[in-house]
């Protein structure tokens, strides 16, 4: 089964979500902090699942890791909205899309001790190169 159509659809949906966020940040007078707050508050909906069989039988470090990942998610979301407020969505989206595999590689290598094949590393480098080209193109156009 080829995952290429699924990956293309996922990237198109991600681009659409970034474009909608950019439009909302520009048309409504939202600042990135309030937009992040309202986007992140949905994480607390999980608390509603407590009466349906939630139990605290995991090790403490699992809960701490979950809290830490939630905090990092909120910071990353705020950073994304700050970038969308200042730059074009056509630049921010691909740069974020190119950085995701890099951080996945770093976390997978150090935390999960996962070794990627040379094809996977080449794909990550191509995505990073695309993000660098987009960013350099933006910086060069601003300098002129």
Written account of the structure:
This protein has 144 residues and is mainly α. It contains five helices and no strands. The longest helix has 27 residues. It starts with a helix and ends with a helix.
What is the topology?
Layout: H1 4-27, H2 32-40, H3 60-86, H4 89-110, H5 118-143
Helix pairs in contact: 1-4, 2-3, 4-5
Q: Please, what is the average pLDDT?
A: 79
| Count of helical stretches | 5
| Outline type | globular
Kindly state the number of beta strands: 0
The N- and C-terminal alpha carbons lie at a distance of 47 Å
Q: What sequence of helices (H) and strands (E) makes up the elements?
A: HHHHH
Share of helix, binned: over 70%
Query: What gyration radius follows from the Cα positions, in whole Å?
Result: 18 Å
Query: How much beta, percentage-wise?
Result: under 5%
Major sheet: size, sense and barrel closure?
none
Pick out the low-confidence regions: none
Classification by helices and strands: mainly alpha
Q: Keywords for this structure?
A:
single chain, 144 residues, mainly alpha, 75% helix
What's the quick description here?
The chain has 144 residues and is mainly alpha-helical. The protein contains five helices and no strands. The model has no long low-confidence stretch (mean pLDDT 79).
């Amino acid at each position: 089964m080829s995952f290429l159509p699924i990956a293309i659809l996922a990237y198109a949906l991600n681009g659409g979500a970034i474009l909608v966020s950019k439009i909302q940040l520009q048309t409504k007078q939202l600042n990135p902090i309030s937009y992040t707050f309202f986007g992140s508050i949905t994480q607390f909906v999980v608390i509603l699942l407590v009466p349906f069989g939630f139990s605290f039988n995991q090790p403490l470090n699992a809960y701490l890791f979950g809290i830490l990942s939630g905090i990092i998610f909120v910071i990353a979301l705020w950073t994304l909205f700050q970038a969308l407020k200042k730059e074009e969505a056509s630049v921010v989206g691909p740069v974020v899309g190119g950085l995701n595999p890099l951080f996945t590689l770093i976390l997978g290598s150090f935390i999960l001790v996962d070794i990627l094949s040379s094809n996977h590393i080449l794909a990550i480098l191509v995505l990073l190169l695309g993000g660098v080209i987009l960013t350099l193109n933006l910086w060069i156009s601003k300098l002129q």
